[in-house]
Structures are given as structure tokens and as C-alpha cells.
Backbone:
């Protein structure tokens, strides 16, 4: 039978936990009809009508001091058929199994103090989806539990506590001042913002009565008068949807603005040339200068010595580049135009700086002609003359003796006949000699 929820005040004056739900008045209950309030649970534990309650609860790590909240924090929760144990909607344990006196299908016997009981998974023994449960927590983790409707103890695996959320860290670490000119300073704020903290703005107090807000950690300020000033910055940090203000000694710095010199100072300190690309003869010129006492640089005219010029305003960074088309020696002149105060008026003064550059011509790469420029007519590959082979005269045959017969044959029959005639002439002579010696 369902029983309405009750809140019972115990003898100590503190409120006792109470449950909603039916009572299990059956032979499986560790305490017949359970205990629907914390006070009722303590009362039945002390009565110990079955004589085995201390041993049963001790087997599950539950002492009377746990039930009273002395050694555990007792809270009302729920245990579910799927084995979950929840407190305030948060799972604190899983795999819950409860002890009972009856042997149910799927239960396993447990021996306690010489008696046999049966432990069953919630999925086997529960008829409803969830039941109110006294949950005992230690150090924020599940320790043990007792079902209200039957006072059956539970064992379950505690859910590991979630990793603690990293705490936001934020601080103003330093405020640095860099002198840009006599009256101008650049201020840089260094901060730390981690674990969800985010810097959303900076508020600067320059110490001369002027203030400025910025989204950047760097800001420039020009002081109108000489003196010693303390600049402060307040850092605005967003933390968990709220803006936190961070300031302090590390967010302060002191600057000293010196008085202007008695007379204006304006000069060119240096003009340098740096080759930045040898292939294109590309040079970068950088100008350094000094202005004090109210003098102001208005503009700079650059003459690169090859007929080319350039002009930069005095408010620009005085760095300019130029490419030379030809080799040669060049003098680059920078004419600085200063506006110099003279009483209540001002006049323009010109100051020159110059630097020389020398660009060597590209030399001949033909072996033996390296001392000549590459565009010299002498920078050519020499051509080796070829001597023609002399024509050989035709070979003529040896002249034959001019005899009557040979001349005749030569004249009448030609060269072939000459050869045949010579043969017959030799043979006739050989026959004549034979006759003479054979006499």
C-alpha cells in the first residue's frame, strides 16, 4: 500500500529523511515493510526484531553511525532497475544489486554470520523502474545504500567523480613604458588569462589627467608638459560571464618627461644603404635623425644619383628602396626639411645626408676574357681557323722510249695501245738477245 511522504523530526531536532512509495511487506524484505523515514530505519535497526540486522548491514559496510549521518552523508536518492543509483538526478553509482531473504530467479546465495541470504541484480528483483533509496556518501562518493520500501542494503560501483573544472586564472603581470620621443611613450600591458578567462579591455590612466580605453594591450600617449607621471592600467577580464577588474602595483609604471632644450635641435644622424637584391641592384636606404626643442621633420627628398628621386613625408618611416639600371658609382642625397621655431614663428631648414654606392658591371664569363665587361665586344668566344687540305696533282705514267713503233702506237691507239706496244717491244728485244748469246 502506498504511503504519503512524511517528514519526521528526530530527538536531536534535525529533520529526518522521508520517502514516497509503497512498503514491501513480504518475506524478501530485510526489514518487514521497510522504513519510509530515517527515524523509522534507526528505530527498527535498534529493535533488531530479526536479530541479524547489524551483521547484514555490516557486511555491506553500513554502521549505525552511517545511518545517523555521523560517518556518512545520508541523502535521499533513487535506485533504478538498470542498476543506476542517482542523487538529485546525478548518477553516483552503477551496477546496483540488493540483498534479500528470498531466493529469486537470477539471485546468488550470500553467507552472512552463518545464515544464507540472496543477492540479486536490480533488473531481476525490481518490479518498478525506480525506488526511493537512502544513499550514504563519503567524500562526495557513493558508499552504500538502503532501499526505503524493504530496508534491503545495496552494493554498487561508485561513479568516478568528474575531473575538477580548471579554475580560471587571470592577472596583470606588468605595465612597460617605452620612450618614443621626449614627450611620447608607448605602454604595453602583459597579462595572463587561462582556463576560460578572457581579457576584454584595458583602461589607462596616464597620470596627467588624461585617460583612454583600448581593446589592445599597447597604446601611445603624448605628454604636454615636462614632469614625472605614474601611468596605471586596469585590465577587464571576462570570467564565467562576468567582467572582473584586475589592477595593482604590477599594473603601474613611472615615466619622466624632460623639459625641452633651450634651443631647437634638428640634425641628420645617418643615411645608410643596404643591398637587398644583387640581381636587380636593389638598395634600401634608411635615415636616422634627431629633432628636439620644438623642431619638426616635415619631409625628406631623396636623390639617388641616377636621375631618379623620391619624397617621403616627415610622419612616415624614413625607409625607401631604389633599383639601379646600370653599373656605376652613385651618391644618394637625402634633403631633410625641418620646421624650426623662431620665437612665435617658424622657418624651414634644409639638412643634407648622403651615402655612396658602387655597382660593378657584370663581367665576361668567357675563359681568358674575364677582365672585360660582359657587354664588351671583346667578350666573345674565339673562333679557331680551319686550314684547307691542298689538292694533290694527278700521277702520270713514266715516259716510254720514243721509238718508231711506240710513237706510232701511242699516236694511233692511245694509252692502252702504248701499254701493249711496250710489251711486244720488250719481248722482241729479249728474243734478239737470246739469239746473240746462243751463237
Residues:
Amino acid at each position: 500500500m502506498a504511503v504519503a511522504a512524511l517528514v519526521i523530526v528526530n530527538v536531536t531536532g534535525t529533520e529526518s529523511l522521508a520517502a514516497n512509495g509503497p512498503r514491501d511487506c513480504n518475506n524478501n524484505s530485510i526489514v518487514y515493510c521497510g522504513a519510509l523515514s530515517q527515524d523509522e530505519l534507526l528505530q527498527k535497526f535498534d529493535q533488531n526484531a530479526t536479530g541479524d540486522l547489524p551483521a547484514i548491514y555490516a557486511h555491506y559496510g553500513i554502521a549505525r553511525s552511517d545511518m545517523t549521518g555521523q560517518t556518512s552523508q545520508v541523502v535521499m536518492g533513487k535506485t533504478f532497475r538498470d542498476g543506476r543509483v542517482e542523487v538529485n538526478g546525478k548518477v553516483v553509482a552503477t551496477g546496483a544489486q540488493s540483498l534479500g531473504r528470498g531466493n529469486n530467479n537470477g539471485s546468488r546465495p550470500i553467507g552472512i554470520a552463518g545464515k544464507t541470504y540472496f543477492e540479486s541484480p536490480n533488473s531481476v528483483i525490481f518490479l518498478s523502474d525506480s525506488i526511493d533509496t537512502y544513499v550514504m556518501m563519503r567524500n562526495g562518493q557513493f558508499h552504500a545504500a538502503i532501499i526505503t520500501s524493504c530496508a534491503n542494503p545495496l552494493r554498487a560501483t561508485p561513479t568516478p567523480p568528474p575531473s575538477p573544472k580548471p579554475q580560471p586564472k587571470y592577472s596583470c603581470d606588468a605595465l612597460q613604458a617605452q620612450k618614443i620621443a621626449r614627450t611620447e611613450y608607448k605602454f604595453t600591458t602583459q597579462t595572463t588569462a587561462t582556463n576560460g578567462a578572457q581579457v576584454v579591455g584595458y583602461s589607462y590612466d596616464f597620470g596627467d589627467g588624461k585617460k583612454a580605453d583600448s581593446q589592445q594591450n599597447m597604446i601611445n600617449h603624448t605628454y604636454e608638459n615636462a614632469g614625472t607621471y605614474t601611468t596605471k592600467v586596469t585590465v577587464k577580464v571576462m570570467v564565467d560571464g562576468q567582467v572582473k577588474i584586475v589592477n595593482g602595483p604590477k599594473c603601474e609604471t613611472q615615466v619622466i618627461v624632460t623639459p625641452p632644450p633651450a634651443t631647437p635641435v634638428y640634425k641628420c644622424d645617418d643615411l645608410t644603404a643596404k643591398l637587398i637584391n644583387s640581381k636587380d641592384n636593389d638598395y634600401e636606404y634608411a635615415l636616422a635623425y634627431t629633432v628636439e626643442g620644438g623642431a619638426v621633420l616635415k619631409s625628406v627628398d631623396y636623390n639617388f644619383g641616377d636621375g631618379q628621386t623620391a619624397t617621403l613625408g616627415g610622419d612616415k618611416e624614413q625607409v625607401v628602396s631604389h633599383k639601379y639600371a646600370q653599373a656605376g658609382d652613385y651618391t644618394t642625397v637625402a634633403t631633410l626639411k625641418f620646421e624650426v621655431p623662431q620665437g612665435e614663428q617658424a622657418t624651414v631648414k634644409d639638412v643634407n645626408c648622403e651615402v655612396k654606392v658602387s655597382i660593378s658591371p657584370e663581367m665576361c664569363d668567357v675563359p681568358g676574357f674575364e677582365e672585360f665587361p660582359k657587354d664588351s665586344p671583346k667578350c666573345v668566344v674565339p673562333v679557331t681557323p680551319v686550314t684547307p687540305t691542298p689538292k694533290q696533282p694527278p700521277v702520270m705514267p713514266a715516259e716510254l722510249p720514243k721509238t718508231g713503233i711506240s710513237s706510232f702506237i701511242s699516236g694511233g691507239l692511245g694509252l692502252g695501245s702504248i701499254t701493249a706496244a711496250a710489251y711486244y717491244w720488250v719481248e722482241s728485244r729479249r728474243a734478239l738477245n737470246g739469239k746473240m748469246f746462243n751463237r
